[in-house]
Design goal:
Blueprint: H1 3-18, H2 23-37, H3 58-67, E1 70-71, H4 75-85, H5 87-94, E2 98-100, E3 108-112, E4 116-117, H6 118-158, H7 174-190, H8 194-202, H9 210-213, H10 219-229, H11 232-241, H12 257-275, H13 317-329, H14 334-344
Parallel strand pairs: 1-4
Antiparallel strand pairs: 2-3
Helix pairs in contact: 1-2, 3-4, 6-10, 6-12, 6-13, 6-14, 7-10
Length: 367
């Protein structure tokens, strides 16, 4: 630990020992205590400090944009939009129109390369807002299906309370199983769901059966406990049900668990983006690009061949194609129509920036 941090931590521990701890001192103590648990990066003290930016009012920021080439809006309206959304959040939508930095071509800064209409920026922001809602709508449908499927299968595998023993969740190590029970207990204790309250007041068991406890879990907790802990046979069965298959001719092993696991993690990443209202439409983050099935030239009917156009693109298109595939597999066609409708009412959005190839609506994976 850095010497300065050591001295501060020593002082804070002394205060802690005295029993006198204000809210701010406690926060500082926890922060410096984290140095011991999570060592700082090796280049922590060689990286440059954050610039000393002056704090500007929304009105000042609006004028700064107007002075640097933003058009089609007056200062009053632009100020209102910055107050409504935030300068930093909106910056992601006008960033592509900024001037590349001479010293660092990967970075851009004001002024705008050409006069840039705020209407274009605002249209993209509103589209992205609608896109996140559509994405989340599909995700919760998939999430509900996954939780119900795993709860039923695991109950049949080891009984309604099978998770109480490590044998009931054989995919978890003993340490992971212990952490799983702690997660279940914490989620159950915090839940105020009607059926959970009823269970607490009527039954003596410390935790409810699978089909109840699953409703208390966050998506991430579900993925790291019930899905990860399930025997391989159940996970393969789920993959097969979702039409995620490999070339194994044995029906019991045809479900591709590797792709399924990757897709569930990709869903978690996008779920977090939608929950935190982050920019989604043109993000090119590998974490939200699902693993695509392999191509098989020797077998034209192989399901993975239909994904070939997305092997050559980057962006969110492959995620939305994956989302459409899963929803179609579980019998929810309404989402596809809603997504295509959204894309249709926003012709101003450059769909190639999302990774969609020309004619994507007519591709087999979107039929």
């Amino acid at each position: 630990m850095h010497n300065a941090a050591s001295r501060i931590l020593y002082a804070l521990e002394a205060v802690n020992a005295s029993g006198i701890f204000s809210m701010h001192t406690r926060a500082a103590f926890l922060f410096y205590r984290s140095f011991q648990r999570f060592p700082m990066p090796a280049n922590q003290y060689t990286r440059e400090p954050y610039p000393d930016h002056p704090c500007r009012t929304p009105s000042d920021l609006a004028q700064r944009l107007l002075d640097n080439g933003m058009t089609g809006v007056n200062r009053e309206t632009l100020t209102m939009r910055i107050e409504q959304v935030g300068y930093f959040r909106l910056k992601g939508y006008w960033y592509p129109f900024l001037t590349p930095d001479r010293e660092n071509p990967d970075k851009k800064r004001l002024p705008f390369t050409t006069p840039t209409s705020f209407t274009t920026i605002w249209d993209r922001y509103l589209f992205d807002q609608e896109l996140r809602l559509v994405a989340f709508d599909g995700i919760i449908t998939i999430e509900n299906f996954l939780k119900n499927f795993m709860a039923m299968e695991l109950s049949q595998f080891a009984g309604p309370f099978g998770y109480m023993t490590n044998e009931g969740l054989p995919g978890l190590s003993p340490q992971e199983h212990g952490a799983c029970l702690q997660t279940f207990l914490s989620s159950y204790s915090k839940s105020r769901l009607t059926y959970i309250e009823h269970f607490r007041h009527k039954y003596r068991e410390p935790l409810p059966p699978y089909w109840m406890i699953v409703g208390c879990l966050s998506y991430g907790a579900f993925k790291e406990t019930m899905f990860k802990g399930a025997p391989d046979s159940i996970r393969r069965k789920l993959a097969t049900r979702l039409r995620i298959i490999n070339r194994n001719s044995n029906p019991g092993f045809s479900g591709d668990v590797k792709i399924l696991s990757n897709w569930l993690e990709t869903i978690r990443q996008v779920r977090n983006i939608t929950a935190h209202h982050d920019r989604l439409w043109n993000v090119r983050n590998i974490k939200i690009m699902p693993q695509l099935p392999r191509l098989d030239r020797e077998h034209p009917d192989w399901w993975g061949n239909a994904w070939e156009p997305f092997h050559h693109t980057q962006g969110t298109a492959s995620f939305f194609t994956m989302e459409n595939h899963l929803l179609a597999a579980i019998g929810s066609r309404r989402w596809r129509d809603r997504f295509i409708s959204l894309m249709g009412v926003h012709p101003e959005i450059p769909q190639e920036d999302m990774g969609f190839p020309d004619g994507w609506r007519s591709l087999p994976v979107w039929q």
